[in-house]
Design a protein that fits this description.
The protein has 404 residues and is an alpha+beta fold. The chain is 47% helix and 19% strand. It starts with 11 loop residues before the first strand and ends with a strand. Bound molecules: zinc ion.
Length: 404
């Protein structure tokens, strides 16, 4: 008769579920406004996917630029090596030309000597030139002059070439400085590109998490039978999101409120929940209403393994808590229906949980979302709600045998 079916407006908050088997605080969250339709949530998903594609294209663009900068560095380094070879060649050539100039000069000196002899009226003239006649002598004389001119021209051109080689070496040295500057700039560019790639990759990861979060929201809504053009709040109102008992069977062994603590014996201690006994270790525990897993705590020295679930009942936020669990089946950010088994009853002695005397479920309830709207345990205690004010339970000591 006292069964309370509370109609709900459900503003869905999904914190991304990170698929790591330990408790993990989420970094990306997607909050679906209750005024949005499923279709709009799907559009949000498309938007995030487009964002991801954009990031992917930025990453690949930057990677291409890195490759082309690396190629450019390689070709500049190749040019430096080639130029260094050119310097070696020019140096060798100049050395060879210096030698030839020296030899050429000696030859020329010899010619000049002979020419001077020829120019004078040396009696050995004919002998030296082996001329057979005066005409022949004149002819040979002219040829010698030509050879001398030719030799002088040759030496001048060699000198010229050596000078050009010196200029080339100067030019190549300047070019090397320029190329090294360009290589340095390209290296800096590569560093910046790699940093941008790293930033993009981080951004991609966060968008990826958002995509997973929205996708899981969509899955939950589809699972609840929401239609594309239906507002989320309307759809979830139709869904059964009222509070129910978290166990199919049990008995209240300790009520909500002030009591003498059962393990410490301290009087006037506030008990911010109800203890439900009558179940053995391993008995399934259900979410008291549709909601999102907001917090999971492992192996607390007082409370053991714990699950906290966020709900919005009739537009009002609540958190339900489940303590002393033997096992936990859910992850932070996971959307759970009120039929989901979130874990199993624990509380037996010897688990390291000092705040229990035997197998039972401590079931708590408070307003707001503990761990998201506020984090202090004292606020959680101040906001504590007696679960029996929201869910019908038989009096302490009397068994119930259903979730209603
Ligand atoms: Zn308790």
């Amino acid at each position: 008769m006292m069964k309370k079916i509370l109609k709900t407006t459900f503003i869905l908050l999904l914190v991304v579920s990170i698929l790591i088997p330990t408790f993990n605080v989420s970094s990306a969250e997607y909050v679906a406004d209750g005024d949005k339709t499923l279709k709009q949530v799907k559009q949000d998903l498309a938007k995030f996917k487009a964002e991801q594609n954009q990031i992917d294209s930025n990453i690949s663009k930057n990677k291409n630029e890195v490759t082309s900068s690396k190629n450019s560095i390689a070709s500049k380094q190749k040019e430096i090596e080639d130029n260094q070879q050119k310097v070696v060649d020019a140096t060798n050539e100049s050395a060879r030309l210096e030698k030839e100039i020296k030899e050429g000069k000696a030859e020329l000196e010899n010619l000049v000597k002979n020419y001077q002899i020829a120019n004078g009226e040396n009696i050995y003239l004919e002998y030296i030139f082996e001329a057979e006649s005066y005409e022949d002598l004149i002819y040979r004389y002219a040829v010698m002059e030509q050879i001398m001119n030719y030799q002088e021209d040759k030496i001048a051109s060699w000198r010229d070439k050596i000078e050009r080689n010196e200029q080339l070496k100067k030019d190549l040295a300047a070019r090397e400085i320029l190329l090294n500057d360009q290589i340095n700039n390209l290296s800096k560019e590569i560093d910046e590109l790699n940093k941008a790639i790293k930033d993009f990759s981080e951004e991609r990861l966060s968008v990826q998490e958002e995509i997973q979060s929205v996708q899981s929201t969509i899955d939950s809504l589809v699972n609840l039978g929401c239609k594309d053009d239906q507002k989320i709040s309307t759809c979830l109102k139709d869904a059964d999101t009222s509070f129910r008992r978290p166990l199919t069977k049990g008995v209240i062994t300790s009520v909500w409120g002030y009591r003498t603590h059962p393990t410490t014996g301290k009087p006037n201690t506030f008990h911010n929940g109800i203890d439900i006994g009558g179940n053995s270790v391993g008995t399934p525990i259900y979410a008291a209403a549709n909601g999102t897993v907001g917090k999971v705590i492992w192996k607390s020295s007082c409370g053991g393994n714990q699950v906290y679930i966020y709900h919005t009942i009739n537009g009002k936020k609540y958190t339900t808590s489940y303590l002393h669990l033997n096992s936990i089946n859910v992850k932070v950010g996971q959307f759970v229906k009120n039929t989901a088994v979130i874990g199993t009853v624990g509380g037996q002695k010897g688990t390291g949980d000092n705040c229990t005397t035997g197998a039972h479920l401590h079931f708590g309830m408070g307003t707001g979302w503990y761990g998201l709207d506020y984090i202090s345990g004292s606020t959680w205690q101040a906001r504590s709600v007696n679960p029996t004010s929201q869910i019908s339970f038989p009096a302490k000591g009397k068994y119930f045998y259903s979730r209603y």
